[in-house]
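#onboarding

Welcome to the new folks! Below is a worked example of what a typical request in this channel looks like: someone posts a single protein sequence, and someone else replies with the predicted structure as tokens. Don't worry about understanding the tokens yet, we'll cover that in week two.

Example request:
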Amino acid sequence: MRPSFLICLAFIIGTGPAFGQKDDPRQRRFPVQLEVLVQPQLTYRQHTQKWGGVFYELQQRATFRSGRTGEKTEVKETDRGGQPAVTAIGIMNRNGSITFGDKTFTINDPQPLKEWLQSLEEFGAGGPPNESSTWGLNDKQFAEVLTMLGQRVTEPVALTSLDDAVASLQLPAAFTVTPTPAAQARAARMRTDDQPTNDFKGLTKGSVLAITLAQFGLGFRPKAGPGGGYVIEIDVGNESDNMYPVGWQNTEPIVLVVPELAKTTEVELEGANVDALIALLARTLKLPHFYSTYEIAASGTDVSTLTYSRKPGKLTPFRLMKIIGTTFKLGLSLRTDEAGSVFLWVTTEDEYQAFRKRFAHATPKP
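Example response:
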């Protein structure tokens, strides 16, 4: 639990320019304002004095102050006189380290802090696009991208080639689709379906694009483009590579959204084909289901050849999904698209865990 702060004491540790020296001549794209919340005890004051020397060397101004009730650490973009800036609010820990968001820095090793500050100055609160969970987009841009990718698919989707797949999705004109050379090379080697499919109708274009690209072993990152538009960068990789996710975690408890998930039924399986069993699960849950074809094949698994048996007993679909996943090192999970529709996604255990790590607590913003 992060501490809340009640004491109303504030003081500033300045950089060289605060003592009359000239500022760094670099033109900072995003000026950074640092605020560190501290407790009133003597040990925190001692840590603050040491940090003052660190920030002096880094030529970075930092304000050390007590916090308001419920105030938490955050890194956000702000407006400073019409210029985009970054405000980073951190918390000093008992051992003297400082935590900003999910990053913690120590007095004895200032290099990571220096690199992080440089990243904030260059890229803003979102960080480098390829490393940021929002791909360098600010809150307004991210919300706009989610809204556009939340449009529903109304036409058949072609899986005959990468170009055909993207074209058939009819993405909004604000997006420029740019495959990397590596993505083009991999897609050219893939054998895909000859006929367009209607299986994606009703789902949103963002999730369907991610599902479709996964069949080629690819993913995409939405980034800010020149002139106010956006770039859909298609690249080799999966959910371990900071790609746009194949669906999101639902904002409601999933058993309330899909009540069939928790209904117990008598199950007896003898040599059941796992592919057919997954299809039966999807029908029971009244959901469409899709495979991460490339990743599963790359792991050496052929789901169509797998069989499963168990003694008679009562099971919920949720429990059976877990059993199948554990037994065959697969990841079966219910994902939610940008408009709230749910589907069953089947991938590898590794990719499933990558999703849980990066996106289990991330949902589309309204």
